[in-house]
Inverse folding.
């Protein structure tokens, strides 16, 4: 099992307590296919903005979760990264 995935964002679902992010990638999927970024995350605004930029521009986004990705729970986002081609 893994706690990191790389893929393209297919949906961002804002919610009162945070946002849910769905990605297109191969491998184990979290509950309902969504990763969860909580508003209590210390870097929420920056990570949410990065996710939006990645989605709009179709960049590959890397997400690391706090635990292994399993279908029984949403993947809790720890950090996200986008690498640009130079």
């Amino acid at each position: 099992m893994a706690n990191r995935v790389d893929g393209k964002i297919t949906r961002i679902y804002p919610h009162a307590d945070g946002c849910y992010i769905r990605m297109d990638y191969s491998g184990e999927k979290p509950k309902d296919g969504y990763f969860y970024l909580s508003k209590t995350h210390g870097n929420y605004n920056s990570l949410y903005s990065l996710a939006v930029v990645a989605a709009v521009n179709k960049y590959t986004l890397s997400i690391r979760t706090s635990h292994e990705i399993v279908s029984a729970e949403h993947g809790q986002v720890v950090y996200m990264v986008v690498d640009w081609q130079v």
Remarks:
- The first strand starts at residue 4 and ends at 15.
